């Protein structure tokens, strides 16, 4: 493809169905889409709605190399917009936003907002302040025996990193399930030296709901929720569709929504974020 044919949008995460669906939707709208993925076998590469594709290093394992690869493609194809398709590419691109200033636009908020959104301890603290129930959770100290730290916990427990993709080193794992304290101890021993202790959380069985939103100037333009097997409920809070008032307040506080519909309601959120997209999940 000739250099004289610029792309409209560069989308990441072609190895996932999220990236594929974003690229497909934009292509159907008549936009020229360049899709990146972390593996040559990325399913999105075969889409007829993709005008070009490229392979980049994993943003989770090598965020700096990932940013360099994306910057090279931006220089070559001059897309008007870059859309990160998952948490790892979102964190890497927002942290390197200066690399793209004057060259393209990034569809993501400032890195400090991303850091807050991906910080699980901050999210749990906000949930506690707003009175939202959450599973029993503790930050594990790798220098102490595991047993006393999990005294009274029901097993299995779930291990999660405290802040994903925000330290420049990438993420070592997403979620680990442990049936007893012995498995927890083995998981901690396998972490690299100096890696902070993860969160340990009681496992709660049940259905989950994920809410997503696109905001502009503090007003929700589009919102929807999904459940098991990808069931989608368009409308979200703009149609009064949130599961509970407390969850609605949490969402507005966290993401910076100004109201349940354009121009009304909630105060500016704690993150200060007024333009962009975000999602959160709850049981």
**Secondary-structure element series:** EHEEHEHEHHEHEEHEEEEHE
For the record, the count of structural domains works out to 3
Main beta-sheet strand count, sense and barrel state: 5 strands, parallel
Helical run tally: 8
Report the count of strand segments.
Answer: 13
Proportion of residues in β-strands: 15-25%
* The CATH homology group name of the largest domain: NAD(P)-binding Rossmann-like Domain
Instruction: Enumerate the strands of the largest sheet in spatial order, edge to edge or round the barrel.
Output: 3-2-1-4-5
The helix content, as a percent range, equals 25-40%
- Global outline: elongated
Stretches with pLDDT under 50, minimum 5 residues: 230-273
What is the CATH domain class of the largest domain? Alpha Beta
- Give Rg in angstroms: 20 Å
* First-to-last CA distance: 47 Å
> Average pLDDT across residues?
78
Instruction: Enter the CATH topology name of the largest domain.
Output: Rossmann fold
- CATH architectural label of the largest domain: 3-Layer(aba) Sandwich
Structural class: alpha/beta
């Amino acid at each position: 493809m000739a250099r004289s044919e610029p792309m409209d949008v560069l989308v990441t995460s072609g190895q996932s169905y999220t990236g594929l669906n974003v690229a497909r939707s934009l292509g159907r709208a008549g936009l020229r889409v360049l899709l990146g993925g972390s593996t040559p076998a990325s399913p999105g590469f075969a889409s007829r709605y993709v005008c070009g594709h490229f392979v980049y290093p994993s943003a989770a394992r090598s965020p700096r190399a990932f940013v360099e690869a994306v910057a090279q493609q931006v220089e070559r194809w001059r897309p008007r917009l870059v859309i990160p398709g998952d948490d790892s590419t979102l964190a890497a691109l927002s942290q390197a936003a200066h690399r793209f200033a004057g060259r393209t636009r990034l569809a993501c908020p400032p890195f400090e907002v991303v850091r807050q959104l991906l910080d699980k301890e901050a999210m749990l603290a906000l949930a506690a302040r707003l009175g939202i129930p959450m599973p029993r959770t503790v930050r594990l100290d790798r220098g102490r025996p595991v047993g006393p730290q999990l005294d009274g916990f029901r097993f299995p427990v779930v291990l999660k990193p405290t802040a994903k993709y925000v330290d420049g080193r990438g993420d070592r794992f997403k979620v680990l399930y442990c049936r007893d304290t012995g498995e927890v101890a083995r998981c901690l021993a396998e972490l690299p030296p100096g890696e902070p202790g993860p969160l340990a959380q009681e496992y709660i069985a049940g259905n989950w709901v994920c809410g997503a939103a696109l905001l502009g100037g503090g007003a929700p333009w589009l919102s929807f929720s999904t459940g098991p097997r990808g069931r989608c409920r368009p409308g979200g809070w703009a149609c009064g569709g949130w599961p509970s008032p407390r969850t609605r307040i949490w969402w507005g506080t966290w993401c910076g929504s100004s109201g349940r519909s354009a121009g009304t309601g909630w105060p500016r959120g704690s993150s200060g974020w007024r333009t962009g997209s975000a999602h959160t999940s709850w049981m």
